[in-house]
Amino acid sequence: MQARRYEAASRAPAGMPGRPVTAQPNQSLGHGLEVLHVLCGAEGPIGSRELARRLGMEHTRVNRLLGTMATLGLAERTVDRRYRPGPAVHVLAASGLRSSGLLQAALPVIRELHAEGFSVALGVLWRDQVCYLYHGKPNQPLERGLAGHQLFPAAWSSIGTILCAQDDPALATEKTQGWAWVVPPRNPDLPNAPLGGSMAAPVGSPIVAALAIIPTDKSNPAQYAARLLQAAAAITAALIPTPRSASTSAKPT
């Protein structure tokens, strides 16, 4: 069952479950977003040739896209002619987090789970990878878990598995029970994989993310399912605006 789960989850769609895919996507926009994604994921400033190599794109095209991004403030050119994310990236990130409300809804629940001794992760599906908005341990300050984890293969992640389960018949059991338990294989290329496994449940209505915990007793993860589902439901409830909050905008400070 575990091997089948990995195979099924490796067919993760390019986005969240149930989202329609455009039949004729704009290739120029797509290429630009690919460049921006690699730029933001780099460990530091990166040259245009290295970006082109990683993406398998023509160097001239990458150069042109980087120039456009620099004009828009999405990229900055350093003195040694390399590039790093520009201030507009932070504007997009802050605006996106504010409009989604996901972290605001999740952090109080995450704090409770940490107090109970759980390591916790909150992530979304990006192609065949999981992007972690939060990934932290109970003995660490909460802020250290914010965006502090690299992209992780969805096929080896409980978050990736439960999100893929919404559209994959091969994962019908996980979808029906509402949670997934995954034990990643021992692999030197996955140094941050949870030892002994993790379990995750979807969050949102419609689903926008998944919440994962690492149980203290890994011999019987099902005993923690009710607590996990309760936590995921609490985040989902906090994401649904009341009529008053939906019509009242916060005043800037």
Task: Write a structural description.
By secondary structure, the protein is of the alpha+beta class. The protein folds into two domains: 2-14 and 99-239, Beta-Lactamase (2-Layer Sandwich); 27-90, Winged helix-like DNA-binding domain superfamily/Winged helix DNA-binding domain (Arc Repressor Mutant, subunit A, Orthogonal Bundle). Helix content is 42%, strand content 15%. It is built from ten helices and eight strands. The chain has helices spanning 2-9, 27-41, 48-55, 59-72, 87-100, 102-115, 158-164, 172-177, 225-239, 243-247; strands at 75-77, 83-85, 119-126, 129-136, 152-153, 180-182, 198-203, 209-214. The strands form two sheets. The protein has a six-stranded antiparallel sheet, with helices on both faces. A two-stranded antiparallel sheet has the order 1-2. It is elongated. The model is unreliable at 1-14 and 244-248 (pLDDT under 50).
